């Protein structure tokens, strides 16, 4: 099986395996360990301590999964765990938000993209729910400024007008909370909406607008998504707005 791998692939997989063994040895953990807690700790260690990029960490996981397959005959179940996916997504979100806060394009576009990133993440939105393909605003299905309201001093409510899983087209309230983190969605989203109203926007106006003030379409967001990833040191080749 090892001989069937390309030399570079085998070298990368061996490096991944050695990194995991080194991590386990440092923290005096059983070798090998493939449980979800250990894998999450390894990902965090690789990012926080070793300063390794997400694409490299994903390569590590592929290598570790390969050696698990050799020993168990099947893929490691920990790599398909919800928490692993969320940990990687939080890392990517953090890098992108830091890039936007540091200055990506312009103050307005940076704030719009920051709000889209945070709202999409914390509301578990599909890209079709905030970045439509249609260039024309349809207030019946596309989000407007009126869809966001203050529920309390630490809670916002986003009214999702339409969802792919909503067969009866019944709007759904989604709660966004103030967090003790720079990823807190409450402050930037509230400030963005207030700035729009301060600029005499109507509650029925688009929630997210492009550079020209028109609908922030899927193609517009996809373009900036890739550019923000690049500026954050993350290759956009491994990601899409769908993921």
TrEMBL record:
Coiled-coil spans in chain: none
Transmembrane region(s): 24-45, 66-84
Keywords associated with the record: DNA-binding, Membrane, Transmembrane, Transmembrane helix
GO molecular function, one term: DNA binding
Record has Transmembrane helix as a keyword: yes
Domain Core-binding (CB): 1-72
PROSITE patterns: CB
Gene3D superfamilies: 1.10.150.130
PANTHER family: P CELL-TYPE AGGLUTINATION PROTEIN MAP4-LIKE-RELATED (PTHR34605:SF3), PHAGE_INTEGRASE DOMAIN-CONTAINING PROTEIN (PTHR34605)
Protein name listed in UniProt: Core-binding (CB) domain-containing protein
């Amino acid at each position: 099986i090892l001989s069937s791998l390309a030399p570079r692939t085998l070298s990368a997989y061996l490096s991944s395996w050695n990194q995991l063994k080194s991590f386990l040895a440092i923290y005096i953990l059983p070798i090998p360990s493939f449980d979800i807690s250990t894998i999450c700790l390894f990902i965090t260690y690789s990012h926080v301590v070793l300063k390794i990029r997400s694409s490299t960490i994903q390569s590590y996981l592929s290598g570790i999964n390969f050696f698990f397959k050799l020993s168990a005959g099947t893929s490691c179940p920990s790599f398909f765990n919800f928490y692993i996916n969320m940990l990687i997504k939080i890392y990517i979100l953090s890098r992108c938000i830091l890039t936007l806060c540091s200055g990506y394009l312009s103050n307005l576009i940076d704030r719009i993209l920051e709000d889209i990133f945070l709202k999409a993440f914390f509301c578990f939105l599909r890209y079709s729910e905030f970045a439509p393909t249609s260039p024309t605003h349809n207030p019946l299905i596309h989000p407007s400024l009126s869809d966001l309201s203050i529920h309390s001093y630490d809670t916002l409510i986003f009214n999702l007008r339409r969802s792919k899983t909503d067969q009866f087209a019944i709007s759904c309230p989604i709660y966004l909370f103030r967090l003790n983190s720079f990823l807190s969605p409450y402050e930037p989203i509230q400030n963005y909406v207030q700035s729009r109203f301060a600029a005499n926007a109507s509650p029925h106006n688009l929630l997210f607008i492009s550079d020209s003030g028109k609908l922030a379409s899927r193609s517009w967001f996809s373009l900036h998504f890739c550019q923000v990833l690049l500026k954050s040191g993350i290759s956009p080749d491994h990601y899409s707005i769908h993921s």
